[in-house]
């Protein structure tokens, strides 16, 4: 039985991350995140949960591949807000405010 995978991105500013992921990309926060001992948010992206977790100090930069999302609506939002991105053959790439690379692959 397959279970949902989780990828955690550590950020220095949760407020800035919430604005980016919800306000700019249009992700919806998952309400079933348990009460943890650090501030953060979960986003359900198909079979994956993307966790954004606030961490003080240095953070490691991560690359995340997200498949099966409608890159047309994401491109439209990015263009509207003037956010830079790169198009590859089958993927849209952009960096979040912390420098994490997001790769959206067409289904």
TrEMBL record:
Molecular function terms from GO: lyase activity
SUPFAM superfamilies, alphabetized: Glyoxalase/Bleomycin resistance protein/Dihydroxybiphenyl dioxygenase
Family matches, as InterPro entries: Glyas_Bleomycin-R_OHBP_Dase
Annotated keywords: Lyase
Keyword set includes Lyase: yes
Protein's name in the database: Lactoylglutathione lyase
Source organism of this protein record: Fictibacillus macauensis ZFHKF-1
Taxonomic lineage of the native organism: Bacteria, Bacillati, Bacillota, Bacilli, Bacillales
């Amino acid at each position: 039985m397959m279970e949902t995978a989780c990828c955690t991105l550590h950020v220095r500013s949760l407020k800035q991350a919430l604005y980016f992921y919800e306000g700019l990309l249009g992700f919806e926060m998952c309400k079933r995140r348990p009460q943890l001992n650090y501030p953060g948010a979960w986003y359900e992206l198909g079979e994956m949960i993307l966790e954004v977790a606030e961490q003080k100090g240095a953070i490691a930069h991560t690359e995340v591949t997200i498949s099966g999302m409608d890159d047309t609506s994401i491109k439209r939002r990015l263009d509207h807000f003037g956010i830079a991105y790169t198009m590859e053959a089958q993927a849209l790439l952009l960096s979040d405010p912390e420098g994490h690379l997001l790769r959206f692959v067409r289904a």
